[in-house]
Amino acid sequence: MKYLIAIVTVFSFSFLAAQAQSKLPEIDKSPMDMSYFPNRYPVDKIQGKTTEPPVARVVYSRPQKSNREIFGKLVEYGKVWRMGANEAAEIEFFADVTINNTKVKKGRYTMYGIPGTDNWTIIINKETDTWGSYKYDEKNDVVRTEVPVKKQSEVTEAFAMAFDKTDGGASLVIAWDDVQLSLPIVF
Questions:
Q1: Which structural domain range is residue 155 located in?
Q2: How many other CB atoms sit within 10 Å of the CB of residue 54?
Q3: Is the dihedral of CA 65, 69, 75, 78 positive or negative?
């Protein structure tokens, strides 16, 4: 009898374990990406080629244009946008920086934008780990700054963000469709 109970118990646990296996999610249409300043920091670090510590990184999802009208239609003018797809874009500073004469302390933040035809408002916000911009709260803003829109002659198919070195620090270049922005960061 004990043998029969042991066999039934083993089969029961085996059945439950097989049912509990998780199904992996499908591949997202807007893959997540990450950009560092200095560029290539993680690769240079493992190769022993780093000459300076990291200052910033941005983590964001990359929606595709896919023959859609982006600005003014998919991404509405004058409304807070998550700067990508899915989770709101996050920017992390590994050192204190200055954006538009405002000191921003070392730490992780959410980045939002308010698109306009000629200028965008870029927002650095204390609230993190959020999806979209549905729970955006202006009370948590650390800095807001206006940046001009530069029209590109070539279309950027996938939303992109990357850092460019400047004399006083770096600029976070943001591009999608025929629009390009540059957020100056001083450090």
A1: 25-186
A2: 17
A3: positive
Residue of 99, 64, 107 whose CA lies nearest to 84: 64
Question: Sign of dihedral through CA atoms 67, 77, 113, 153?
Answer: positive
The helix (run of H) or strand (run of E) holding residue 108 is strand 107-114
pTM value? 0.84
Q: Give the chain's residues under pLDDT 50.
A: 3-18
Residue showing tokens 């730490």: 107
Contact 181, 149 (CB under 8 A): yes
175 in any annotated domain: yes
Query: Which strand (E) or helix (H) includes residue 12?
Result: helix 2-20
Q: What is the pLDDT of residues 60-73, one digit of tens each?
A: 999 999 999 999 99
Q: Mean pLDDT, the chain, as a whole number?
A: 91
In a domain, 71, yes or no: yes
